[in-house]
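Trying the structure run again after the queue cleared.
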Amino acid sequence: MSKVSIEDVLQLVDEQLPFAAEHGFTLESLGEGTATVRAPYLSKFLRPGDTIAGPVMMGLADYGIYAALLSKIGIVPLAVTTNLNINFLSRPGPYDMIAEARMIKTGKRLAVGEVEIFSEGSDTLVAHVTATYSIPPLGAAQK
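Done. C-alpha cells:
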C-alpha cells in the first residue's frame, strides 16, 4: 500500500514543484512504488521536426519517479535526483505522453527507478529512463 495519497503528492507539487503544473503534468495513478503521469500534447513542447522536445520527456520522467518514490518513503521534500539517464527510442506521436514509473530498489539513502514513456494509445516505447534519487537522513528531511 502506498505511504501517500495522490492528494498528498499533488499538494507537495503545488507548493514546491511549480514546473509540473506549469507544464500541465498530471498524476494519474499511484501505487506502492509506482506512478503513472501524463504530459499533454502542446505545441510549445515541440522542437524542430514537430516532435516532443527531450527536456519535456525528461521532466515528465523525473516527476513520475519522484511520485513513485514518495509512495514508498512518504513525503520527503528534500529527496533529489542524483542521476537521470534517458534513451530516446522512437518518435512520439502527436498525442499526450504517458509515463509509467516504478521503483526498482529503495534503500535507506539511495533509490533507483525506471520509467517507460509512450504516446497515448500506442504500445511503442518512446523513451526508457533510469534515475537515482538521494534520500536525506530523517532529520534533514524535516527541516
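The helical segments are 6-16, 18-22, 54-73, 138-141. Worth checking whether this holds up in the mutant runs.
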